[in-house]
Amino acid sequence: MNNRAGFLEKLESEVENCRRCSLYKTRTNIVFGAGPANAELMIVSEAPGFNEDQKGVPFVGAAGELLNKLLKMTGLKREESYICNILKCRPVTSNLENRPPRSEEIEACTPFLDRQIEIVKPNLIVTLGRYSASYILPKIGYSFRSMAGVHGKTFRGCLLNKAVTVIPTYHPAAALYNPKYKDAIEEDFRVIGRELEKLFNTSRLRCGLSDRLWQVQEKKDMKLPRSIRSRQPIL
Ligand code: SF4
Predict the structure, then answer these.
(1) Distance 23 CA to ligand 1 centre (A)
(2) pLDDT at residue 150 above 60?
(3) How far is CA 12 from the centre of its chain?
(4) Which residue CA neighbors atom 1 of ligand 1 most closely?
(5) 39 falls in which pLDDT band (50, 70, 90)?
(6) Hey, which CATH number is domain 3-210, 3.30.1250.10, 3.30.565.10, 3.30.930.10, 3.40.470.10?
(7) Which atom of ligand 1 is nearest to the CA of 24?
(8) Ligand 1: does its nearest atom lie under 6 Å from the Cβ of 105?
(9) pTM of this structure
């Protein structure tokens, strides 16, 4: 197990025992997050709903299917991104219906999200809906007033000591309930696709450079130190 996966596993065990807010009383499962521990793209949404709480997995059901389709438009499979939420337990009304997160729950739970970001170190964060946009954007120095003002825009900044790009968009559930959001969310995912293309081209370029440098080094001589001859990454 690599270090990042190990750190995520430890953090998940901590969340499983969490009682920092009252949502632990009504949860069936925590929904910690899913995806590769070294993903380039992290998707941060709001909170688990009924299906997620039952299965312990983010984005199952109709909104999950729509998210998968939107991700496909970017050329990325769902399994290639790390998906998580602001809250790890489902917020419910007294009738056990879904409800939006409360500020005290966000305050209690987001230290876990911060640690996920620190471990995964994504280059691109896509926020889904107003709760995640209004949490992440101020952390990189931008104010949040409304989804209409920020969706589909590219924000660059430093988050937890790492350069990061943030693109907010609407929650896929909004597009399911109100078709007026469908075009906007699809257009936003086109922007996300172009940003990912830039990211992957940059990393391909870095790998290509690395390979070319190694070919030159290897031809030059064998006087290089042993640590370098062993083809350690040099970039
Ligand atoms: S929502 Fe977060 S803070 Fe509240 S009990 Fe669940 S894991 Fe803990």
Answers:
(1) 6
(2) yes
(3) 16
(4) 89
(5) very high
(6) 3.40.470.10
(7) 5
(8) yes
(9) 0.86
- Chain segment 11-32, per-residue pLDDT in tens: 999 999 999 999 999 999 999 9
88 lines ligand 1 (CB under 6 A): yes
Q: Is 86 in the pocket of ligand 1 (CB under 6 A)?
A: no
pLDDT for residue 223: 37
For the chain, domain boundaries: 3-210
DSSP characters for the chain? --HHHHHHHHHHHHHHT--SSGGGGT-SS----BS-TT-SEEEEES---HHHHHHT-SS-SHHHHHHHHHHHHTT--GGGSEEEES-SS--B-TTS-B-PPPHHHHHHHHHHHHHHHHHH--SEEEEESHHHHHHHHHHTT-----HHHHTT--EEEEETTEEEEEEEE--HHHHHH-THHHHHHHHHHHHHHHHHHHHHHHHHHHHHHHHHHHHHHHHH-S-S-HHHHTT----
- Give pLDDT tens digits for 172-223: 999 898 988 999 999 999 999 999 999 888 765 554 444 443 333 333 333 3
